[in-house]
Amino acid sequence: MAHGQRVGRDSATRLTRFGRAVGYGAIMGVAYAGVNQINDQPTEWGRNWNGFGKRVASNLGEFLIQESVTDGVAAIMKRPLDYTPCRCRGTADRIGYALGGAVTDQMPRGKHPIAIPRILGAYAGAYAQSTWRPDSRSRLEQTLLNGTTSIAVGGLINLYHEFKRH
């Protein structure tokens, strides 16, 4: 698949999809910064506007690195990035399919290899953030927690797409 070639059923190019993801990531980065601001995490940044700005920049940096790695590796490996709902009918099967889609890629002809691009991206972004964010946790602990959380959020997003009404 050439760069910019269609990857999902909505006919988006990789670059268009990346742009939409960055927009979504910016909104979520500000929202998570608000939560971190309320909880004063990390405390070293303080509860002022300067601290909020650092939280926003940190979250946006993590997300941009995550998306860049995910999309770049997916393009190289010719992997799709969009979620395709299950053709199954049972609720439990649909839930399992959606959650499994967080760690597997939905390839043509029904194959589901490990989602190397998504996993690398989640942990690359989390590791990068751990290098500039002051925290009492170790870089490894912070990376594992944030990377795993990112993958889990992907599973929840898949559940939304699996069960949303058109």
Structure description:
The chain is an all-alpha fold. It has one domain. Helices cover 64% and strands 0% of the residues. It contains 5 helices and no strands. The protein has helices at residues 14-39, 49-77, 91-100, 116-132, 139-163. The longest helix is centred in the middle third of the chain and has 29 residues, at 49-77. The two termini are 29 Å apart.
Question: Descriptors for this entry?
Answer:
166 residues, 5 helices, elongated, 0% strand, mainly alpha
> What fraction of the residues are assigned to beta strands by DSSP?
under 5%
Tell me the number of structural domains: 1
- Kindly state the percentage of residues in helix: 55-70%
Low-confidence stretches: 1-8
The quaternary structure here is: single chain
**How would a textbook summarize the main sheet?**
none
Q: Gyration radius, to the nearest Å?
A: 17 Å
* End-to-end gap: 29 Å
Question: Which of globular, elongated, flat, extended, rod-shaped describes the shape?
Answer: elongated
Question: What is the typical, i.e. mean, pLDDT?
Answer: 89
SS summary, helix count: 5
What's the SSE blueprint?
Blueprint: H1 14-39, H2 49-77, H3 91-100, H4 116-132, H5 139-163
Brief description of this entry?
The protein has helices at about 15-40, 50-75, 90-100, 115-130, 140-165. The chain starts with 13 loop residues before the first helix and ends with a helix. It is elongated and about 50 Å long.
